[in-house]
Design a protein that fits this description.
A four-stranded antiparallel sheet has the order 1-2-3-4, with no helix packed on it. A three-stranded antiparallel sheet has the order 5-6-7, with no helix packed on it. The protein is built from no helices and seven strands.
Amino acid sequence: MQYHEQGVTSTHFHEQYPLMASASNDGSIHIFHFKVDNQTVNDAVILPLKVLKGHIKKEGEGVKMVKFHPKQPWIFSIGVDKKVYLWM
């Protein structure tokens, strides 16, 4: 992913909304809107929406996992700083 400064550690797609999240060792979470036409990945349109920052990096590592809430467009994140965040 070209949007992160370091390696991506986790990605997750929302079950109901056209949203994708990616987490990275750079300590950030990126939220994307995506659209796929004709069920092919070749025509996919991915638009960056927001960058979330809050986890503290330790020893070159940052956010370890992201996951969307099953019904709401909320994101849970877990970082190497031993904190769990709910982003609403």
